[in-house]
TrEMBL record:
Pfam families: ETFQO_UQ-bd, Fer4_ETF_QO, NAD_binding_8
UniProt source species: Bombella favorum
Domain ETF-QO/FixC ubiquinone-binding positions: 202-295
SUPFAM superfamilies attached to this UniProt entry: 4Fe-4S ferredoxins (SSF54862), FAD-linked reductases, C-terminal domain (SSF54373), FAD/NAD(P)-binding domain (SSF51905)
Annotated protein name in UniProt: Electron transfer flavoprotein-ubiquinone oxidoreductase
Annotated keywords: Electron transport, FAD, Flavoprotein, Iron, Iron-sulfur, Metal-binding, Oxidoreductase, Transport, Ubiquinone
EC number: 1.5.5.1
Chain ranges of the ETF-QO/FixX C-terminal domain: 433-530
Lineage summary: Bacteria, Pseudomonadati, Pseudomonadota, Alphaproteobacteria, Acetobacterales
The protein's required cofactors: FAD; [4Fe-4S] cluster
Entry function: Accepts electrons from ETF and reduces ubiquinone.
Cofactor remark from the record: Binds 1 [4Fe-4S] cluster.
Catalytic activity as recorded in UniProt: a ubiquinone + reduced [electron-transfer flavoprotein] = a ubiquinol + oxidized [electron-transfer flavoprotein] + H(+)
Signal peptide: none
Length: 534
């Protein structure tokens, strides 16, 4: 099949790019692939939306019925100790990036479904349930993508319902796969796009949605925390947003450059709910959805060159997220708009590379915003939690993001673990089944579908390396960082992979110490089926 443009990924970046392409030139044929069973099925986010880019895309978004129903009404940033919570005073002055006035708490899944409808109304062809499994290369150039085979058994043999992958040819391919995209990783390696960039650094966001009693619901209330339970060298914290009809979105982000291999992001997330500042929000409620996803935290200094022969990178797969704001929706959407305009330009001028993308990015508010935010995340890696918090106050209030230096990211996340014997073990409390839960009960709420009789999509290249490094040196850290309990160590010290539980967060691809685990796309439609509240 041949199109002018193929987009891989139906998140905010890909859908926005699709819409802008057709707004710019309704003659262009645009196809969008989404590996989830429908648009929104694999989407995980907080999500507080800054509506700036949406207003650029559709100035009449209100009349079009965009699902932005809960304006932010009140917000708090708390520094937690084990028993107490200190609110950061004069928040908007000290940390202007945390100012959420004018923003909305949304379900990003519902928002993406709405964007999908807008795209289809403009003539974009959306194919949910189809994963982009490989880049289609010809003459050193990306000429489209190849979708995954369907109907292959665990041994790699064809089943009766076998359907080979399709080649979708395109003049330009827009990769919009979100953090640690599998095709984006291939494109970055094939064209050496990261050669001038700092290592990308990621966080793992784990999230639950709760339904709580109406009398306790405070629509638009936003709370963030830092400090306890993480140690002072680990970056991260919790968020809690009241939205929709008696819903609360609660989650915890743990930076994946953490050092202690005994740390479990899932357990950190569970135990934070027991803190008095969070606990009260869940009392009398019930947990209805669970999910997890990596985010790209590195900022502007970790961005790869986003243009390659035949295509571009947009959104979180490049790393357009503003970490101090904990926001990547409006930035991903903006990169989608800019990418679309550059791609239209390239096609109209018969160019194979959308060379104007970089220049357009550099002239945009997106670049200014990311540039101003660039030193805050690395400050926490350099000076720990308190030093980082102090630096971020100084950077925001005195330098206003214009400090004449740029702090670098020195390590990739897979390089930071200490040997297990040099790190303190962490005793996590047992789940109580009411407020806190174990992984198996949690993954049940991700509504997974995954045919077990298909090739394992978590490819461990070399089991001997796993034994010598992961098991012997780091005490099998994947059994703790995987939020879905996919990895277990058997009694005979073999690695067991429960691939059917994978929620596609991509943390194993990022954090595995020797980069021995490669996350590949499973059959289309596999994975979570998050409902609209997510
Ligand atoms: C827990 C958490 C909380 C967050 N909170 C906020 C917040 O409050 N505000 C905010 O602005 N941002 C927040 N973010 C960040 C925000 O969600 C992301 O920055 C944003 O969703 C990135 O958009 P994207 O389109 O680049 O990628 P994604 O949203 O990740 O979408 C990528 C899509 O591509 C699909 N895909 C991937 N690979 C393939 C493939 N090979 N073939 C086919 N389909 C593919 C995926 O299934 C997915 O649907 C949060 C993120 C997390 C994880
Ligand atoms: S197997 Fe990997 S990608 Fe899947 S849920 Fe676990 S850590 Fe995430």
């Amino acid at each position: 099949m041949a199109f002018d443009i193929v987009i891989v990924g139906g998140g905010p970046a890909g859908l926005t790019a699709a819409i802008r392409l057709r707004q710019e030139n309704p003659e262009l044929s645009v196809c969008l692939l989404e590996k989830g069973s429908e648009v929104g099925a694999h989407i995980v986010s907080g999500a507080v939306l800054e509506p700036t880019t949406l207003a650029e895309l559709f100035p009449d978004w209100k009349e079009r019925g965009a699902p932005l129903d809960t304006p932010v009404s009140d917000e708090k940033l708390l520094f937690l100790t084990e028993k107490s919570a200190l609110p950061v005073p004069a928040l908007h002055l000290l940390m202007p990036q945390m100012d959420n006035r004018g923003n909305y708490v949304i379900s990003l899944g519902a928002f993406c479904r709405w964007l999908g409808e807008q795209a289809e109304a403009l003539g974009v062809e959306i194919y949910p349930g189809f994963a982009g499994a490989d880049l289609f290369m010809e003459g050193g150039k990306v000429c489209g993508v190849i979708t995954g085979d369907m109907g292959v058994n665990r041994k790699g043999e064809e089943k009766p319902d076998y359907m080979p992958g399709m080649i979708l040819r395109a003049k330009q391919t827009i990769l919009a796969e979100g953090a640690r995209g599998s095709l984006s990783k291939k494109a970055m390696a094939a064209f050496d796009l990261r050669k001038d960039a700092d290592p990308q650094t990621f966080g793992l966001g784990i999230k639950e949605v709760w339904e709580i009693p109406a009398e306790k619901h405070r629509p638009g209330f936003v709370q963030h925390s830092f400090g306890w339970p993480l140690d002072t060298q680990t970056y991260g914290g919790a968020f809690l947003y009241h939205f929709g009809k008696n819903l609360v979105s609660y989650g915890f982000i743990t930076a994946l450059d953490y050092r202690n291999p005994w740390l479990s992001p899932f357990e950190e997330m569970q135990r934070t709910k027991q803190h008095p500042a969070f606990r009260e929000h869940f009392e009398g409620g019930r947990r209805i959805i669970y999910g997890a996803r990596a985010i790209s935290e590195g900022g502007v200094q970790s961005l790869p060159h986003p243009v390659f022969p035949g295509g571009v990178l947009t959104g979180d797969c490049a790393g357009f997220l503003n970490m101090p704001k904990i926001k990547g929706i409006h930035t991903s959407m903006k990169s989608g708009i800019i990418a679309a305009e550059a791609v239209v330009d390239a096609i109209q001028n018969g160019q194979s590379e959308a060379t104007s993308y970089m220049e357009r990015l550099k002239n945009s508010w997106l670049w200014k915003e990311l540039h101003a935010a660039r030193n805050i995340r690395p400050a926490f890696s350099h000076w720990g939690m308190l030093g980082g918090a102090l630096y971020s106050g100084i950077d925001s209030m005195i330098f206003r993001g214009k400090a004449p230096w740029t702090l670098r990211h020195r390590h990739a996340d897979n390089e930071t673990l200490l040997p297990a014997e040099q790190a303190p073990k962490i005793n996590y409390p047992k789940a109580d089944g009411k407020l806190t839960f174990n992984r198996a009960e949690s993954v049940f709420l991700s509504n997974l579908s995954h045919d077990e009789d298909q090739p394992v999509h978590l490819q461990v290249q070399d089991m001997a390396t796993w034994k010598a490094t992961n098991l012997a040196r780091f005490a099998a850290p994947e059994s703790r960082y995987c939020p879905a309990g996919v990895y277990e160590t058997s009694e005979t010290e073999e690695l067991v992979i429960n691939a059917q539980n994978c929620v596609h967060c991509k943390s194993c691809d990022i954090k595995d110490p020797t980069q021995n685990i490669n996350w590949c796309t499973p059959e289309g439609s596999s994975g979570p089926n998050y409902p609209s509240g997510m």
